[in-house]
Amino acid sequence: MKQYDALLAAASTTRRGTPTAAELAIAVLAPLSLFLQLLALVSYLASPALAYTALSDHFLKLVPSGGDDFDIDNGKLLAPILIPRVPGTPGQVAAQEHLVNFFRNELPSWSIEWFNSTGKTPVTGDRDIPFHNLLFKREPPWVQEGQSNLLTLVAHYDSKISPEGFIGATDSAVPCAILMHVARTIDHYITQMYDEMNVLGEGGTVPMDMGVQILLLDGEEAFLQWTETDSLYGARALAEHWESSYHPANSFYKNPLDQISMFVLLDLLGSADPTISSSFLPTHWAYQAMATIEQRMRKLNLLESNPKGPFLPDAEKVVSKFGRGMVEDDHIPFMRRGVPILHVIATPFPSVWHTINDDGAHLDMPTVRDWARIVTAFTLEWLDMMEVEPKDETSKGG
Ligand SMILES: [Zn+2]
């Protein structure tokens, strides 16, 4: 995503102290941000209320961390992504195979879709660079096209072309691995939920027809320097396509954008002491839900990290403080089209950001595993999984 380096130099002459990247984003994007928030608010008010029951302490205790699967050398989920993954290179093909094979082999109930596009970049001349978004989805088996509302968990899996050998561990190998962990952990609960709904003859009413999709987007990074056209290649192509992909005339949701109940974007996660701000008033309630899960898990001693402050400190943010902050990232093309966004990104950015040091060795593994727990619990809660809460401690969450 974009950090406002050039602006930082300019703005620091007119402000006391050195502004953070987030503050600069605030200054630059305030009018746009307000407009987009209004759009998202309208969209939120128009969507049906979702059932929402907090997970019990008992359930929170069952949420697994992923453990050794996040090991940077041999971990089944993370290690294969800790390679350069520049679009159009063999490294990226290897990353794609890892991601797709995981779902194909371990989560056969999830649909797998490639969304392919091409684009020209400022450093690759007339050559068309391929971009491949990977879309994984699980929805109730009885739904018609355009009927389910989809919690949409998002990260980008491409890596930046420079500096040479750049890994992008926080940016965004770790977020991708976390989403794989979320998928495999929630899978059997979803199966149980859909089976029980089927037996009871539930479902078919829109608020209950909940599913989840994971979007691993390509081409987030700029090739030369971040501009509107040199960045977000995959996200821009997908949002544009979905906007004009109309469902049949009698569908509840008019297109795939409309089906997104919340677009939860993870980025720059895995360094110690992250701070995630609440960026958008219309989705602040969802931020609060995630912050509450973090607080509860910390109180129950379920988290390993020992940060200076909470990862999500903005639960009490007052209304008058909103309308001002935004970091450009994969949510932008979706937000512009009215999709509600929860942006889970560390600001200030990790100190290794866009340097050769953003690699496995510089990750803080307790923080990585805590994010895996928090995002998994948030997802279970969103999907109302108290309905299928395991009865005893011996049941493991996958
Ligand atoms: Zn980046």
UniProtKB/TrEMBL annotation:
Per the record, the GO terms for biological process are: proteolysis
* Pfam families in the cross-refs: Peptidase_M28
Q: Any idea of its EC number?
A: 3.4.-.-
| Entry-linked InterPro entries | M28_QC (IPR037457), Peptidase_M28 (IPR007484), QC/QCL (IPR040234)
- What are the alphabetically sorted keywords of the record? Acyltransferase, Hydrolase, Metal-binding, Protease, Transferase, Zinc
GO molecular function annotation: glutaminyl-peptide cyclotransferase activity; peptidase activity; zinc ion binding
Query: The Peptidase M28 domain covers which part of the protein?
Result: 147-378
In the record, the note on similarity to other proteins reads: Belongs to the peptidase M28 family.
Indicate what this protein is called per its UniProt record.
Answer: Peptide hydrolase
Q: What is the lineage of its organism?
A: Eukaryota, Fungi, Dikarya, Ascomycota, Pezizomycotina
